[in-house]
Fold Oxidoreductase.
Amino acid sequence: DAYHSEVTLRVNGTPRALTVDHRTTLLDALREGLGLTGAKKGCDHGQCGACTVLVDGRRANACLLLAVALDGCDITTVEGVAKDGGDRLHPLQQAFLDRDAFQCGYCTPGQLCSALGMLAEAAAGHPSLATDPDAPPAQGAVPLTPDEIRERMSGNLCRCGAYPHIVQAVEDVIR
Ligand code: FES
Ligand code: FES
């Protein structure tokens, strides 16, 4: 009908076709259409960052995007961050564990995706970092100070206040 369209999203490397109401957000398409509940719905209007995913490698608030507009796009959710079917953590995930960079964990999928997007932004010129878990640590090559990390991650709220540990975890993977 006039209110639904079929779209194909490439989600975590796999093409997924689904029919969406034109008002469906990417967040609802992921969570309810595809059963990928990693991206969280905190506010549903762009204020908390819990829904952050990567769209064509750039971080975005999935609650602010319409799925129908993303036909053919590459989407990475937190479910796609670990490798080998989830058996091998991304170094950033390991750093979050090592640094206790969460308490309730509700913001964590968004924090991880946002941090990966931030690292990719900062890694222009340092492409070894990006989001490749097999890449060696960048050994100080990425110019991000703790203040810059805080500023660039300021769209991701954590009501548990894990911010200092989140910054430490990000620092761990860029040292
Ligand atoms: Fe999208 Fe809060 S749920 S920014
Ligand atoms: Fe609870 Fe961040 S760990 S909101």
